[in-house]
Design goal:
- 47% of the residues lie in helices and 24% in strands.
- The protein is α+β, with helices and mostly antiparallel strands.
- The strands form three sheets. The protein has a seven-stranded antiparallel sheet. A four-stranded antiparallel sheet has the order 3-10-8-5, with no helix packed on it.
Length: 352
């Protein structure tokens, strides 16, 4: 019995044939393009956009009294991000300033004491000269009375009175010398004490500078132009020194791509090569970059537990070598690339 095909069957067969032909043509074009791409480019899709993301860390502890930024906000270098209650640090600063003033006043008192002692010392020095003159004069008097006594022109009582007065003058002279030396020694003691006070003032000045730093740490500012990331603090929250409060993406440094190429691919790559990459987020836009460095080791070697193939069974796995690529172009053009975005990198092969 002869099979009859309806018009619908013929139409379906024709459409199916066209679809199969178009599919085959597309597969052929894709295959040819893939072979051409394989021959001319080293390709990897194991690559991400990178940029410096730094934590905002507090150098002082206390209660947060103000938060001056929002997540994803653009900030400028020097902008205030957070304020910490600084009253305790201010009190410590004022206490140290008062201690410095006290020691400075103490130093002035010691300087005044030295001037007083120097005047006393000069007076004692003059007294020594006066007493020395008295001793010298009385000594002559004693010699004269001794001659008179020998000649029996003076009584023994008169001679003894002259000798007694000579002893008094000698003792007064000795006393004035001792007083003069004591005043000098006391001046030296006060000068030594002044050195101690001066050293204490310098120590307190250092402590004061530290307290001023602590006060300044209560105002947390942006260290560079950037964009704020995740925020983890609120007003009234108690924080400790060293605590991470937020993250900031640095706008002052270049962006780059870390492409993890297979170890079998890097033989055809060298520093300075120009590469092309496409971000998954912007498949119709091509970006250019330059290879600026190769990792000194494979990615697995930097892992927490690097593989040790000498311990037993060994399965050979192709390793990945991180390649750092600087993104070229105007800043406003590459700003659309965000940290962590996946990209597909094409590095031209060098032939001949």
């Amino acid at each position: 019995m002869k099979k009859k095909y309806t018009v619908t069957d013929k139409l379906i067969t024709k459409i199916t044939g066209w679809i199969a032909g178009i599919t085959l043509l597309c597969l052929s074009v894709w295959g040819v393009y893939s072979i051409w791409e394989y021959l001319h480019f080293e390709y990897t899709n194991d690559a991400q956009v990178q940029e410096y993301i730094n934590p905002v860390i507090s150098r002082a502890g206390g209660f947060i009294v103000a938060v001056k930024f929002e997540e994803n906000e653009v900030v400028k270098k020097g902008d205030t991000l957070l304020l910490i209650d600084n009253r305790e640090y201010k009190i410590q600063q004022m206490q140290t300033e008062a201690s410095i003033q006290k020691e400075v006043a103490h130093l002035k008192v010691l300087e005044s004491n030295i001037k007083t002692l120097e005047n006393i010392s000069e007076s004692n020095k003059a007294q020594i000269s006066a007493n020395k003159a008295k001793v010298w004069k009385q000594d002559l008097e004693n010699e004269r009375y001794q001659k008179l006594y020998k000649e029996e022109s003076a009584t023994k009582q008169q001679l003894e009175e002259v000798q007694a007065e000579l002893d008094v003058y000698k003792n007064e002279h000795l006393s004035s010398v001792n007083n003069f030396e004591a005043s000098l020694a006391k001046i030296n003691d006060i000068k030594a004490e002044m050195d101690v006070v001066k050293a204490e003032i310098e120590r307190l000045k250092s402590v004061l500078e530290r307290h001023k730093l602590d006060v300044s740490y209560t105002v947390i500012i942006a260290s560079y132009d950037g964009r704020m990331g995740r925020r983890t603090v609120e007003v009234g929250q108690m924080i400790n020194a060293g605590e991470v409060l937020a993250f900031i993406v640095d706008n002052e440094t270049d962006k780059w791509v870390v492409a993890n190429y297979k170890e079998t691919q890097i033989a055809n790559m060298k520093l300075g090569d120009t590469v092309v990459f496409v971000a998954d987020a912007f498949p119709n836009k091509k970006f250019k970059g330059t290879i600026i460095s190769f990792s000194p080791a494979t990615g697995s070697s930097f892992s927490l537990l690097p593989p040790d193939n000498s311990t037993g069974n060994f399965v050979k796995i192709v390793q990945r070598v991180p390649v750092r690529i600087k993104i070229e172009g105007m800043r406003n053009e590459i700003d659309i690339l965000k940290v962590g975005m996946n990209v597909n990198v094409y590095s031209p092969k060098k032939h001949g």
